[in-house]
Amino acid sequence: MENEIRLASMLKEGTRQFSFELSQEMIQQLLIYKEILKEWNKVVNLTAIEEDSEIIIKHYLDSMSILPYLKNTKIKLIDIGTGAGFPGLPVKIAYSNIDVVLLDSLDKRLKFLKEVIRKLKLEGIITVHGRAEDFGVKQGYREGFDVVVARAVASLPILLEYCLPFVKVGGIFIAMKGSNIEEIQHSMKALNILGGSIEKIYEIILPYSEIKRTIIIIKKLRHSPTNYPRKAGKPSKEPLI
Q1: From CA 115, how far away is CA 56, in angstroms rounded?
Q2: Quick check: 117 and 36 in contact, CB under 8 A?
């Protein structure tokens, strides 16, 4: 019980640093999610982070660091390569009005996410099994989202080809990266081809840590050419640099 109070306090105070106030219900949902994550992690490789406070900092607070760049309105958001649900699931818990799609290529992870969604009784959130290269050309997915997010999936030039085809013209792609942002200078070709422009770069330090993170906001200015994304495997083998 003492540990739960400590973790709840970390969540509440930590998200205040992102100008967001978590309700008691949201905190409870996040703590239940944590317990399901730890249980499933014994049999499915979901995360290398297993200590409670580390999960709060490196998964939850990291995920919710993008809340200031979203609006709690009826927008459509897709999380590409969601893994164990980060950042998409914590964002959905915080902003219940957002419609969320969690896309991942590993079915075992999606079974876990379905269990979390069921236990938390979340609505307006679905899981999709597949690769970004395949879904980025599908009707209903291609240029079908106001916001696309991806957290530490690949280097930025590769990530742009995975993600920008999903973004509506006028929408944004939020790339969540570590402290090394040298790859930004290698991304101009991909941005130019795919119709995006870097709008802002924010450098933050995660609460209760010295961990540096970079949030890159990319605006979709025009339609992505129909021949992008290229077939599965091609963006990572031959990045647009």
Answers
A1: 20
A2: no
CA distances from residue 184 to 144, 156, 210 in whole angstroms, order as listed: 25, 7, 22
In angstroms, the CA 110 to CA 116 distance is 10
Domain 69-237 has CATH 3.40.50.150: yes
Which of 89, 148, 75 lies closest to 117, judged by CA?
89
Residue 20 Cα to chain centre, angstroms:
17
Question: Could you read off the pLDDT of 75-107 as tens digits, one per residue?
Answer: 999 999 999 999 999 999 999 999 999 999 999
Largest CA distance in the chain: 55
- Residue 135 belongs to what H/E stretch? helix 132-135
Query: What is the average per-residue pLDDT within 109-133?
Result: 97
Pair 90, 30: CB distance under 8 Å: yes
